[in-house]
Design goal:
Elements (H helix, E strand, L loop, with lengths): L41 E5 L3 H13 L3 E5 L2 H10 L4 E5 L7 H9 L6 E5 L4 H10 L3 E4 L4 H12 L10 E4 L2 E4 L4 E4 L2 E3 L3 H11 L5 E3 H8 L8 H15 L9 E4 L3 E4 L2
Parallel strand pairs: 1-2, 1-3, 3-4, 4-5
Antiparallel strand pairs: 6-7, 7-8, 8-9, 10-12, 11-12
Helix pairs in contact: 2-3, 6-8
Length: 263
């Protein structure tokens, strides 16, 4: 794990940038910026640490994002209201209001995905942020490449498109149209709840889906709609689909937060 001020790129920092802030110069002009006449993807970065804020702004702009910034929660909500962002990168530890309140304020009118940055590692903080409406949670210190990958994933949320007609997990070929699974010539049977769980995950490739959201999607028997029930169903899916359920490659757990499908 690298410092939160360090990108995995080996390019040198631009003039005036903090030492250790590596920016991939080759990425400039090849990010999500649109052709002339079309607006770039706008990202609002909310962070009260000046060095961190500068590092994020430099790295995001180098990759073609239109970046706006705020150093506290009230300014963040005002900036979002005047220039609605396509996505928000939000530190929870702000000097005026807690980042959770910023998420709730945004969710009153905006569906822009929110990626939380925080030094808080407790599962309770993560669950509270996700339940408030955050889309992903990155713990400090973090790698810049990881953060950018998470940002791309949540931005693709708005138009995920239909899930693929078929996909492969481990030894299994899964046909979502016919709801059939083959491991070689052997048929693998999934329960209705396991199908709903699998379909929900594959509709959002790469994205973190919180526990409460997944429970709402899959339903299940009354009195069993809790985290233990979801953990049981995910373990069953892995046993049926993953080549090595103890080291899953596709159906991943984000401890204390939820689950993610990695194609």
């Amino acid at each position: 794990m690298c410092s939160p001020l360090t990108s995995h790129s080996t390019s040198s920092s631009p003039s005036g940038a903090d030492p250790g802030v590596a920016v991939a110069a080759a990425a400039a002009g090849h990010g999500p910026g649109s052709p002339a006449g079309h607006r770039q993807t706008r990202v609002l970065v909310v962070e009260d640490e000046a060095a961190m804020l500068r590092a994020l702004r430099i790295n995001l702009r180098a990759r073609g994002y239109d970046v706006t910034t705020a150093g506290n929660g009230r300014d963040a909500l005002a900036e979002a209201g005047s220039r609605p962002p396509d996505a928000v990168i939000l530190d929870l530890g702000l000097p005026d209001v807690d980042g959770i309140e910023v998420i709730r304020g945004l969710r009153g009118w905006s569906n822009a995905p929110v990626v939380v940055l925080s030094g808080r590692t407790g599962s309770g903080d993560k669950i509270t942020a996700l339940d408030a409406g955050a889309d992903d949670y990155v713990t400090k210190p973090f790698g810049m490449d990881e953060l950018l990958a998470r940002l791309r994933a949540v931005l693709s949320r708005d138009d995920p498109g239909p899930p693929p007609a078929s996909l492969t997990i481990g030894r299994c070929t899964i046909d979502l149209a016919t709801r059939s699974v083959l491991a070689g010539t052997r048929t693998v049977r999934l329960t209705p709840v396991q199908w709903r769980l699998l379909e929900t995950l594959v509709r959002h490739p790469g994205q973190l889906l919180g526990t409460q959201r997944l429970l709402a999607e899959i339903g299940g028997p009354e009195g069993q709609r809790d985290r233990h029930y979801l953990r049981f169903q995910m373990a069953a899916l892995r046993r049926k689909l993953e080549a090595d359920p103890s080291r899953p490659q596709h159906l991943l757990t984000e401890p204390g937060m939820g689950y993610r499908y990695r194609p």
